[in-house]
Structure formats: C-alpha cells, structure tokens
Amino acid sequence: MSPKWRPVPFRVNAATALRDPSLRKAMNHATEIFGKKRSDAFTAKPIEEWREEASEIRMNVLSGLSQYVDAFAASATKAGAIVYRAADAALACSIVGNILKDRNVRKVVKSKSMVTEEIALNSHLENLALEVVETDLGEYIIQLAQEHPSHIIVPAIHKNRQQVGKLFASRLHLDYSEDPFALTKMARRILREHFLTAQAGISGANFAISDSGSIILFTNEGNGRMVTTLPPLHIVVVSIEKMLPSLSVLPKFMRLLPRSATGQTMTSYMSVISGTRRKDDTTGARELHIVLVDNGRSDILKGEFFEILKCIRCGACMNSCPVYRLVGGHAYESTYPGPMGVILTTLLEGMQKAHPLLDATTLCGACADVCPVKVPLPMILRRLREKRHEAGFLPVSERGAMSLFGLAAGAQSAFHVGQSFSRALWATASKLSPTLKRMPRPAAQFLRQR
Q: 51-97, pLDDT tens digit by residue?
C-alpha cells in the first residue's frame, strides 16, 4: 500500500507516547496552564452570548462562501494585491514557487501557518533550492528538530527547555543553556539576520475580510510583522473558509480567539494588511500576493459535516481533549491533531488513511464545551465513526466482538452469565485480544450485586 494511503497507526503511536514520561509531563503541564488561563479569561464575561454570535457569523459565511471569496478577491485586487485560486495543494505550492522563482528569491522567512504545513509548502520550496526559515519560535524549534508541529497554536508544546537547550547547542553550535530567556535571545539574534537578508516573506492569515480585501494576523511574537513588512515581497497563503464579512465583526473574534487559544484577553499583535505599501509608508511589502487555497474545502462544504469549517483554529479543543493531552500531536501523524484535527484529516485525506484516528476520542464532549464558534465536534466524530463502521474499516474481530456484546446486552440472563464468565476468563482472553488488554479488569462485585 502506498504510504500516502497507509492507515495512520494511531494505536501504536499512542502506546509509544504513553511510555514517554518527558512527553507526558510536558503535555500535562502545558494543557493544564492553557485550560486554567482560558477559564480565568472568560470569568464574568458573557461567553455563551459571544459564542452564539460568532457561530452565527461563521454559519452565514459558510452559507454564501463562494460569494464572500469572490468579493474578497475583488477587494484585495483593488487594494493592490494579486490574488490566485488554488484548487489543491499541488497548485498552491506551484503558484508560490513560481512567484519566488520569477523574482530570483533565494531566502524566504515565514511566520506560523498551518495551511502551509497542510500543503507541504516548505518541502516544495526546499526542492527548488530555496532557503526557508521559520521565524515563530516554536516553529523554529521544530524546524531545527526536523519535526512537524505538535499543536496548531504551540508547535513545540511537546518539548521542555532542556530538550530545546540541547537542540540549540547541537544544531546552532551554541553554548548549552536551559534558561528560557537566554534561549529566546539566541533565537532572536539568529533570526534577526534572516529578517534583514530575506527577499520574501510568507504568512498565513487568521481571517480574510471580504468587503475590504484585508488580511488579519494574530501573533504573540514580533516575527509576524517582520515577515510581512521587511521583505519587499509578501505572499499570503490562506484557506478559503477563513472569510469574515467585514471589519465590523472582527471585535467579536478579537475577544474570543486569544482567550480560547492562550487565555490572553488580547493577542500581543494584531495586524490588518490591506494591499501593498503606499506612497508615504515607511514599511510594508511592495508586492502582495494572496493564494486562496481550497484543497477539499468546497467538497466538505457540500456534505453533512460542513460545520467543521466554522473552526477558527484556536486549539482549545486540543487543550481540553483527554486523549490529546496524554499522547500529544505527533501520534496523529497529521497536520491537524486533536478533535478538530481528527475530523479535518478524515474529511481532507479520506477514511482509508484516517479511520484509526477516530479512536482518538472518548466522545466526552469537553471539546464542544470550549469551542468558541460552537462546532458540534462530538456529533461529527460519532457520525464519522458510524461511517467508518459502514465502510467496513473496523477489524473483523472487533466487529464480531461488538455484535456478540450487542446480543448479550439485549438479553438480561445472557448478560449476567457473560459477566460471571468474564471474571473467570479475563486473564486468558486479555492475552489474546489487544482490545481487552487495554480495558480494566471486571469488578470483583458487579453493580447489580451491590
């Protein structure tokens, strides 16, 4: 089977992750902090009212997405940008590569962008002999480590300061330090030179404003503004569902996104980019190119799971998910991990590859409770599990076992007999079945007996 269509070995990956105490400690520490900060940031705020309003706005956008995209393209063009449409990842990469080649660009600096991860843009550009430098500190760390992001907001969430210190010492040939301030200064010193010598900057976008053609960027590091203003050429890669109708609705998302993502009442930097540098401006790109990426979104929009496109990529569902918090992002082998990632990966890459990821949920509903735009994540996950069953992707042994359980559970006497036998046979059966091995032993005294 081609690696592209090989099912993700999630259970194997998860078991490996659970045996890594360093990963467990880092994940638990980070997600606990984010969860508490989010809770504190929404204290005494009308959160449900905000969520309802944001959900309604996003639903309205999706109901007329093609019109919003067309209006954005027209507005951005009028403001001085050059807009491209990319139906898939290959075309998006080709467009960006051609823009850079035509201008003899040799070095590119990037701010954090998950859609460029999705389309594997860095690999494409490196194959064209371009130097590509990630400038978000977390992205820079994992680029040095030759890894992929473990979280959509905090790419290096899985690493502790000792690991980062060793990485900097080995890859950058610097003196070892595990002091976060010292490590940040090291990265800043090196990245500053890249900012000043790059011929192009590439960014993503948190939102695209339809009526003004503006790009909105939320960042917590100054790198976002350096990437979009210092190089003469700025390329924005944004997926089509990121549309908002106008700047007038942006404050609603300014309140929700930072609080949901990192527990901040306001992000450190919010940039509104409308067109190219004007005559009297001292900063800003002289050329602005915007690549609108579909890559399967239009197909999702036509289906029953279209509400996943409301997602504003805050990462709150990951921070609250009991599965993600234990195993981290790399176990998913996907650009997007966690609850929203399981759904997006299944819809974008197909059930054949992603069906094992549907085990990565307890359906506890914690993700839905924290989603700022009220995506019905548990409902979609449950329905996708049903589709997995209908498509025959469950192992024969598991399907058979669940059928037998259904028959036994439907007859009280058979269920009671099964309970008694389960105690006697558990030790043997659990050795034969990996599924049973992961489950707790039957109680010495069952609930009905108590």
A: 999 999 999 999 999 999 999 999 999 999 999 999 999 999 999 99
- HSE-up (13 A, CA, CB side) for residue 262: 16
333-355 pLDDT, tens digit per residue, is 999 999 999 999 999 999 999 99
Q: Are residues 417 and 380 in the same domain?
A: no
Selection from 253, 368, 384, 360 nearest residue 316 by Cα = 368
> Same structural domain for residues 189 and 107?
yes
Taking the alpha carbons of 292, 238, 249, 80 in that order, is the dihedral positive or negative?
A: negative
pLDDT at 3 over 60: no
Look at the chain and report how many structural domains it folds into: 3
Q: Which two tokens stand for residue 248?
A: 């007038």
Edge-to-edge strand list for the sheet holding 214-219: 243-244, 207-209, 214-219, 269-273
Largest CA distance in the chain: 84
Same domain, 362 and 291: no
Token representation of residue 97:
């590569």
Same domain, 12 and 130: no
Shared domain check, 349 and 252 = no
In tens, the pLDDT along 397-423 reads: 777 777 877 887 787 777 777 777 777
CB atoms near residue 78 (< 10 Å): 12
Q: Are residues 231 and 356 in the same domain?
A: no
Residue 310 in domain: no
CA gap 235, 291 in Å, rounded: 7
pLDDT digits (tens, 9 = 90+) for 253-303: 999 999 999 999 999 999 999 999 888 887 888 999 999 999 999 999 999
Co-location of 72 and 160 in the same domain: yes
Quick check: 128 pLDDT over 80? yes
- Distance between CA atoms of residues 253 and 371, nearest Å: 12
The reply to whether 57 falls in a domain is: yes
What pLDDT is stored for residue 435 in this prediction? 66
> Each residue of 52-71: b (16+ CB within 10 Å) or e?
ebbbebbeebbeebeebbeb
> What is the residue range of 76's domain?
45-298
pTM of the model: 0.90
